[in-house]
Write a structure and sequence with these properties.
By secondary structure, this protein is mainly beta. About 10% of the residues lie in helices and about 30% in strands. The protein has a five-stranded antiparallel sheet, with no helix packed on it. Strand 3 and strand 4 form a beta hairpin. The protein is elongated and about 55 Å long.
Length: about 160
């Protein structure tokens, strides 16, 4: 996922905080947030994941007039090619997600992101044979070019298809 431009807006932060059930004032109340160590509205830890909605090519983002993969087994009849490793119907599963914050993400920041491959490793599964793990790393930078967040996602796929019951 690589959004060309991801504006971090106070309203988006509020809606995101509500959607995860977090009422911390640093996400929801401008005046109270000013009196905290944060010094103003900041984004919750996993907020950068919503940048996917600003990436026009993100495969889980619905596109007007096109079939959408959806959230079920062939929910819309669209099938994805196997061989992926990050879930979303690509023959694998999303296994882990890690966020490293280099500074708080603030309302008013405008982020850009760049995604590149990370490490790859293998383990032997109990029933599935070889499990192949692959990491992708996304760096989010603010309008000044400062690194704000590094996100690491790990996907896992099996070497051979597992029988469905």
């Amino acid at each position: 996922m690589a959004a060309e431009r991801f504006p971090v807006e106070e309203g988006h932060i509020l809606m995101f905080a509500r959607s995860i059930g977090d009422e911390n004032v640093v996400y929801t109340d401008r005046e109270k947030a000013k009196a905290t160590e944060a010094g103003g509205i900041i984004a919750p830890p996993t907020f950068v994941q919503s940048s996917a909605q600003f990436d026009p090519n993100y495969f889980l983002r619905p596109k007007v007039g096109q079939p959408w993969f959806g959230s079920g087994k062939n929910a819309t009849g669209v099938t994805r090619a196997s061989g992926g490793g990050g879930g979303g119907g690509g023959g694998g599963l999303h296994a882990e997600q890690h966020y490293e914050y280099h500074r708080p993400l603030r309302a008013g920041d405008v982020l850009t992101s760049k995604t590149f491959p990370g490490k790859t490793w293998e383990k032997e599964g109990r029933r599935s044979g070889k499990l192949v793990f692959s990491e992708s790393v996304t760096e989010y930078r603010n309008q000044d070019g400062d690194l704000v967040v590094t996100a690491r996602g790990v996907g896992v796929r099996t070497e051979r298809p597992v029988e469905q019951k």
